[in-house]
Amino acid sequence: MAFSSILVTGGCGFIGANFVRLLLERGYNNVVVLDKLTYAGRLENLAGMGVPIVVGDIGNLELVRHIVEMNGIDLIVNFAAETHVDQSILNPFVFTETNVRGTHVLLEVAREKKIRFHHISTDEVYGTIEGDHHSLETDILAPRSPYSASKAAADLLVQSYFVTYGLQTTITRGSNNVGAYQFLEKVVPLFATNAMLDLPLPVYGDGLQMRDYTHVSDHCTGILAVLEKGSIGEIYNVGAGQEITNMAMLEVLLETLNKPRSLIRHVTDRAGHDRRYSVSVKKLEALGWKAQYAPKEAVAAAAKWYLENPTYWQPVRESSSFQAYYNRQYAKRLETV
Ligand code: NAD
Ligand code: DAU
Question: Which domains does the chain have, with CATH numbers?
């Protein structure tokens, strides 16, 4: 085993929970989760896994230090973040607090304890991609939303700890993930559950924006490949390596769920909406990793999971907090079409 005791922050969220499950499958049995359980974190995502979960904030330095000391942690994998672009437009401050300051606190503890630090970043740090370019890890950062700006800031902090203190760091920049346990605010689970409820699907603008929809299992195996075989101080993109339009994603969803196109509504666009993300994954593939799902297959598999797991998502849809968010984000948009 490459690591003896792993702290996974944000392990009760979508990708973190899938990653913890992968670690256990691969025989990494000493795993501790630190999660604040924000609206996006759910204990159900790790139900039955037997993993110790500390409920707390990555910005609490004493708590993080205590967890690392008490568990002999030799690797921190940082998934904890505020993650939704639309939420960052509505309420940006918490994004700098968690994504920048919280990451900084984790880096400080990693430096103090001289342990490996892996940071989960995003392809959104490259900004909107023109022409047929595929972002390389060496490309300049050009984030355009409060979310992506906070993630880019964190990436720079991580790199600074590698250069300045020689901290053993790696970064992965994942593209748009889909699959089991994703919170309903994100487009695929939102549209899948709306469709099952025969509610309209609010497509921002013309729906021709392009995303590299990646199955979460591919993202998780990519992260593990970097942990086990990646070079210290390096950054690796993770994605299917091909992108489709949101309209194409939508067609797959409707077909999988056997729902009509009449549910589609084009609504007011997202402010500053990035038109296209596209990453080159050649550097990660050189470690022997390969994505198993093309974007359309990943979207179909995700839609199927929500179809088969209504008891997972129905309580969230019915919660007053989700309904308040949904109304704030969509009521006006849907009433004007
Ligand atoms: P998510 O929103 O589903 O989960 C985030 C988790 O972090 C939640 O469990 C939440 O409770 C926890 N959290 C938030 N603030 C915290 C804090 N201050 N202290 C401790 N825990 C806190 O997110 P996700 O989609 O699973 O994303 C995980 C990571 O992957 C993020 O860093 C995100 O930027 C990155 N990422 C996401 C995607 C994607 O498509 N979802 C793609 C690329 C990268
Ligand atoms: O690319 C990686 C990023 O993918 C991650 O860093 C983020 O954490 C994750 O949320 C995701 O960001 P996106 O903005 O791409 O995901 P989202 O699901 O919000 O939107 C995907 C696309 O669908 C985007 O072009 C906006 C569009 N969309 C989204 C919503 C919620 C709609 O058309 N209507 C919607 O209601």
Answer: 6-177+215-238 (3.40.50.720), 187-211+242-277+293-324 (3.90.25.10)
The verdict on whether 213 is a catalytic residue reads no
Å from CA of 82 to ligand 1 middle: 6
Strand order of the β-sheet with 31-35 is 53-55, 31-35, 6-9, 75-78, 116-122, 169-174, 235-238
Ligand 2: centre distance to CA 86 (Å): 8
Flag whether the pTM goes above 0.90. Answer: yes
Annotated active-site residue 255? The verdict is no
Q: Is 274 a catalytic residue?
A: no
pLDDT tens for the chain, residues 1 to 337: 689 999 999 999 999 999 999 999 999 999 999 999 999 999 999 999 999 999 999 999 999 999 999 999 999 999 999 999 999 999 999 999 999 999 999 999 999 999 999 999 999 999 999 999 999 999 999 999 999 999 999 999 999 999 999 999 999 999 999 999 999 999 999 999 999 999 999 999 999 999 999 999 999 999 999 999 999 999 999 999 999 999 999 999 999 999 999 999 999 999 999 999 999 999 999 999 999 999 999 999 999 999 999 999 999 999 999 999 999 999 999 997 6
| 38 neighbors 91 (Cβ within 8 angstroms) | no
Catalytic one of 82, 124, 155, 212: 124
In short, whether 190's Cβ falls inside 6 Å of ligand 2 is yes
Report strand pairing: 210-211 vs 244-245: antiparallel
